[in-house]
Write a structure and sequence with these properties.
The complex is a heterodimer of chains A (114) and B (112). Chain A has no helices and eleven strands. By secondary structure, chain A is mainly β. In chain A, a hairpin with a 3-residue loop joins strand 4 and strand 5. Chain A starts with a strand and ends with a strand. Chain B is globular, with a radius of gyration of 13 Å. In chain B, strands 2, 4, 5, 9, 10 and 11 form a six-stranded mixed β-sheet that branches. Chain B has a five-stranded antiparallel β-sheet with strand order 1-3-8-7-6, with no helix packed on it. Helices cover 0% and strands 54% of the residues of chain B. Chain B is mainly beta and 112 residues long. The chains are: A mainly beta (114), B mainly beta (112).
Chain lengths: 114, 112
């Protein structure tokens, strides 16, 4: 158990819909990262927040957005969902914002878009 | 275009022998590399890292080697154990603290 929690575990929705994935980092960790793992693409970095501020952006679509709240939990919002958005979404946290910090991953949210 | 490649989708090794997982990258600006292990239905777990100022880093049974001129790194697991069976991801980054790129992963099976 990494100490990072993600809800929900599974999510099934239809194309065109909007969903929110939630992540609670380990106690004391200020940085939160979001990743997408599709079947054929491996892990892709989406976005990083540090202490409430966006820190780095990866291959995140404009239909997706994220935020980190004052209590440091984070939400990833996915809108106008398409079939290709079906994937495992992982959240990770680390103490600081540097890549040299070990990231601790949550168990993931499996999103299925029908 | 994949900047980080793991050309072997899968690898099978006998228990007790050495497992060698390979990773190639194309961006010469990458200066920090990590290996993660992932079991089914779990998030990835950090294994070991190496910065570009080193060519080797060791942690117990795990050793990562970096060949900058060849843009190649490898993860050695000695001796391999059945519990090492998992998918291994290589990841690379430039500019500490910035986003980084994962490879597609290699599924390692360690046979008893």
């Amino acid at each position: 158990d990494s100490g990072v929690t993600q809800t929900p575990k599974h999510l099934i929705t239809a194309t065109g819909q909007r969903v929110t994935l939630r992540c609670s980092p380990r106690s004391g960790d200020l940085s939160v990262y979001w990743y997408q793992q599709s079947l054929d693409q491996g892990l892709q970095f989406l976005i990083q927040y540090y202490n409430g501020e966006e820190r780095a952006k990866g291959n995140i679509l404009e239909r997706f957005s994220a935020q980190q709240f004052p209590d440091l939990h984070s939400e990833l919002n996915l809108s106008s969902l398409e079939l290709g958005d079906s994937a495992l979404y992982f959240c990770a946290s680390s103490v600081e914002a540097l890549l040299t910090d070990t990231q601790y991953f949550g168990p993931g949210t499996r999103l299925t878009v029908l | 275009d994949q900047q980080v490649k793991q050309n072997s989708p899968s690898l099978s090794v006998q228990e007790g022998r050495i497992s060698i997982l390979n990773c190639d990258y194309t961006n010469s600006m990458f200066d920090y590399f990590l290996w993660y292990k992932k079991y089914p239905a779990e998030g990835p777990t950090f294994l070991i890292s190496i910065s570009s100022i080193k060519d080797k880093n060791e942690d117990g049974r795990f050793t990562v080697f970096l060949n900058k001129s060849a843009k190649h790194l490898s993860l050695h697991i000695v001796p391999s154990q059945p519990g090492d069976s998992a998918v291994y991801f290589c990841a690379a980054s430039h500019n500490y603290g910035q986003n980084f790129v994962f490879g597609p992963g290699t599924r390692l099976s360690v046979l008893p």
